[in-house]
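Raw record, unedited: Major facilitator superfamily (MFS) profile domain-containing protein
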Amino acid sequence: MTDANLASILLGLSQVVGTVISSSLMDKAGRRFWLLTSAIGMIICLTIFGVYENYNIRGIGPSWMEYVGLSSIVLFSLSFALGEGPVPWLLIGEFFDNRAKANVRWSGPGLDLLVVRAFNGRCCYF
């Protein structure tokens, strides 16, 4: 098994574990707790990944440093799956009545798709 395959497996596993934990404990611990925990975890993981990239670009650091980068990305994915990923979708049901839910559920991903399509060719190529 290559390192890329192992990284993909760990990333998918962290998303599944985070989704199972958050869906089973969302109402018990509260949405605010999961959002704050998720945001703090993502900030810490991105900071660690930034330090890793700084060492990686300069070519310094010990050989085990590549596992720090992988583990920070896996933990970032786990943190996202715990709160920032599922909580906004749960809040849609509380903000809108039943007639508006279908339109609202489409508008979020639909607007995301339109923004990505509109700015993809304009912002990435200078």
